[in-house]
## 1
Amino acid sequence: MVVSLHDVSPLTQTLCEEILARLLPLGIDQTSLLIIPNHHRQAAVSENSSFRNWLVRKVEAGHEPVLHGYFHLREKKKTDSFWARLRTEVYTAGEGEFFDLSTEEASIRVQRGLQDLAFLPRKIAGFVAPAWLLGANAEIAIRNLGFLYTTRLGTVRTFGRGADIRSQSLVWSTRAPWRAVMSLAWNRCLAAYLSRAPLIRISLHPFDLQHPGVWEQVRRLAVETRRCRECVSYEKFVESLSLPQGR
Ligand SMILES: [Zn+2]
């Protein structure tokens, strides 16, 4: 199983810390932390030494740092089609930063993000686009910059290590009460469907913690899944794909 924590930034640090602390006694001591270098242009990691120190401690404790966009926000465009608006505004509340960037612009933002996170004690192997919306042009930039993998809602894509691994992630939406209720029902069914799948992905967001029903389901699923599976970061999972079977 892989547990990832999305939207890690100075804006969400307190909730992230609380989530990691609650996961630890469940036997989940390594997660993939999806870090935003400058969350909504309001929280530059490069200007926040206490956040950087906190993050270093988490990485040293075994969590994997993953680059998660740069600002996380996508600027609206006058030329947006109806379908582009539907996907980027309604589905993701305007968070699809890498949905339709050019290869050049994506490359600039990603390199800037890597620079901002260069204080970390280890190299970053993964890039996950905000809202999992990674456009084809932006994906070229990610591949060219030497990342090992990216993930989408339904797949893990390893660059140069074989075909996509299909695995629908469990993920909760708490933007509105009705979404949270739908999430609970959907994830209950999905978890049952996935119970024998080779990989189970649990994707958490900081605000999941503030919804008691959601957190209770997360906790229960994490405990049940951990009982019979190893919990690793995405990077370790991807590395394991190239090991001989049985190792
Ligand atoms: Zn995100």
## 2
Amino acid sequence: MNRFFTTLHLLLLSVSAASAFDAPGFVSTIFGSNQVFQHSEPLTIFGWALSPSVSVSVTLTAADGKKSTTTTNSSETAYYGAYYRWDATLPPSPPSFSEYSLTISSETTSQTAEMTNLLFGDVFFCSGQSNMQFSVEGMLGKDDEIAAADDYGGIRMFGVGQPAGQLSGPQQTLPTVALPWTVVNSKTIVTDPGNGDFDQFSAVCYMSGRHIFTDILKSSTPVGLISSNWGGTPVEAWMPEDQLKGQCDGGKARDDKLNLDASSGDDWNPNADHVLYDNMITPFEKLVVKAAIWYQGETNVGYWNYDCFQSLMVESWRKMAGWGDMAFTFVQLAAYDCGGSQALPDFRGVQLKAVDITPNSAMITAADLGDVGSPDGDIHPRNKTEVGRRLSLAIDKLVYNKDLDSAHMGPVVDVDGIRILEDGVSISFRGDTIGGGLHLEEAQVCPNDELCGNAVLSLSGNRGDVVIDDVVVVGNSTIELRKYGVDGSKIVGVSYGWGDFPLLKVFSSYGVPAAPFKAEV
Ligand SMILES: *[C@@H]1O[C@H](CO)[C@@H](O)[C@H](O)[C@H]1NC(C)=O
Ligand SMILES: *[C@@H]1O[C@H](CO)[C@@H](O)[C@H](O)[C@H]1NC(C)=O
Ligand SMILES: *[C@@H]1O[C@H](CO)[C@@H](O)[C@H](O)[C@H]1NC(C)=O
């Protein structure tokens, strides 16, 4: 095991429940100076007063001095025995790099808070397991990215802390904050708050946001990034309890070892059902986000119905007040040595199916981005720059330029477009997924044949399988394999990239590879 999982293991053994919680503040800790709020949407600020039914005033002041104030009353119901929630909603503000400030006060209880250097832009929520947690410091190409970060003060980041114990049920306040809202620069993107491995800001989240900011928004709109993740955790930890009552069962997918009762006993286990949803998602309920970015699944490899879990999770997140119809983008698992069984390729196939059952979603593949030399283990490939770039293309299509073609996801095979030729096989891709046309790339070098086996294209015939990497592009949307040389064998199936460590060769004009696929012919 690599050092990250070892640390996590120790963490599991050593913590006790319900320790190290921050008391609910006068203003929720999801807010703070340097924050980017979602532009053109009502802005809800909330917190807790020390008495019931007291008046709380919230004033937003623009750089030109223009003010907007709203007054609300704290509730009559106590939260944690002594705190009374208040919510105040201000009207929408346009995108802005000029700094706003917020003043929040209760005359009755003399509580006040002040936040400065606030911007309005687009807000993204990043979540998942260790490949999302993986820090900027560990990624390939970090030196250039870190140096360039001094130009990106329009990007602001917030890191959710990993609680040392759980509170039962969906929380309104974050148990702990790792990184309060912080302006991106070359120091802050590699600041280590000191809670363990992969603890600096998420590389995938930052690189997605950086590409959105520079390539799509052309630095015209601020970007806010929220990172809430935990290595080694299954999807069930990120879903609400009521969605785990059998909707996705009916098969042998779930490993009962994971199905721990979150509320029993003192032992805090971040792998338990719904605990991370309750402690690291719901505290953001009223914060408006534009899109979510999800990189998770390694822990769920083997689930034939992961698509069901993931789509229910998205549905539950979208039910939160500020999340509405947010776009949802996710990463198809990268190449790593998963033991060479069919489990990892099959799981990638299930991830691909999830796109079809989740409206307003997109998947990008990382299946070609393997990295056997990664010091954090091959399960943690370091090319997060490219993962972020591909995610930003998906977000461009879902959020900013809906009429773009779908080539952002990489070419998608047309299953009715696979034909057996006299001396080969011809495979067509959907015309809306190729951009300006398909091309081939020598994506990677295979680290060893056992890992790559059926990596490129394999034809199954009644006399066994043949593996072929001799592919040509014909026209804009078709690839052909010629002289496959299966003597007298009748070809019954085609699979592309169907291995732990696929070598993907077929790319759209955006430089995004076709995700692995398998089809009968
Ligand atoms: C707050 O409470 C006061 C006194 O009970 C009441 O007059 C006022 O209408 C309330 N304001 C809001 C915004 O509910
Ligand atoms: C990451 O992957 C992309 C696509 O394969 C490649 O062009 C790029 O050079 C890689 N980045 C690094 C730093 O290796
Ligand atoms: C390929 O696509 C380009 C640009 O869309 C188009 O002009 C060209 O005619 C296409 N070629 C073929 C062979 O379909």
